[in-house]
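[#protein-structures] MJ: dropping TRAP transporter small permease protein here for a structure pass
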Amino acid sequence: MMKKPSFFSLLHQIVRMGNGFSEWTGRWVAWLVLTMVLVIVYDVSMRSLFSIGSVLLQELQWHLFALIFLLGAAYTFKHDGHVRVDVFYQSRYMTDRKRAWVNIWGGLLLLIPYCLLIIISAWPFVYSSYQFSEGSPDPGGLPYRFILKGAIVFGFGLLLLQGIINILENFLQLFDKSNQEHS
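AK: finished. structure tokens for TRAP transporter small permease protein:
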């Protein structure tokens, strides 16, 4: 007879899959950084050496930067590289258990509602842009601006997913007695 997986082992699987997905997207976004650097070097070289400028390349630079920022937020959060007010969080009075509670409540009361607010608020904005096939208002600029605007929804969706995974990780840290086995 096959043994049913426990509640905690299912949560561990969900956490592993979610963290794996964030890791994969973060590594993919790293290639956008390289692409942006190459575009900037090329654009600056062409302007400096040959006095040839391009609206398309300038817009591509900030589009890539926006994608890096939006799509890399979940990866950054996963690796605890986000901005945090560490006055209390890193004090000697904060045990790992207290930090786990701060992470859970911070995620439930701040991160998840904020992500949902941005996703819900941005959706009509993105849809309208898609309906009108919005492109750059500048001659020679990039078309399909709705793709960049759609990255707002997608990026905050990724951050929301990683926030939920973070809450589950902290929940497991607090309540799973076999946590050392899965670490």
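MJ: nice. The chain has one domain: 9-176.
AK: one more thing. The chain has a mean pLDDT of 90.
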